[in-house]
Amino acid sequence: MYSLIITSVTCVSILLLLLWHGKRVNRWMSDLTFRWGLTALSREKHRKSLERDTSNTQDIQEKLLLETLEKHQNTEYGLKHNFQSLRDVSSFQKQHPLTQYTDYKDYLQRTSQGEENVLVQGRPTALVATAGTSGNRSMVPISHKSAADRFNQGTAVYLEIINNTFPGALEKGFKFTFPPTVHHSDAGIPVIPCPSTFSASFLKDFSCPPLPVHPTMSYRERLYTQLLFSLRDPAISMLEANFFWLLRYMFSILEDCWESLVTDIQKGRLNTELKVPLETRQQIEDMLVPDAPRASELHSQFQKGFHGIVKRLWPKLQVILAMESGGSDLDRQILQDGVCQGIPVYSPMYCAAEGLIGVNIWPIEDVPQYVLCPRSVFFEFIPVDISDQEQPTTLCIQDVSADNAYELVITNRNGLYRYRLGDVVRVTGFNNQSPIVTFLYRKSQTLNVRGERISERDFYKTLRSTVNMWSGAALLHYCCLESTVLGPLSGGSDPHYEVFVALKGVRNLTEDQRYKLDQTLQEHFPVYKSFRFKGSIGPVRVHLTTSKSFLRVLELAAKLSGFSLDCVQPPRTVKSKEMAELIWKQALS
Question: Cα(222)–Cα(246) distance, rounded to whole angstroms?
Answer without folding.
Answer: 12
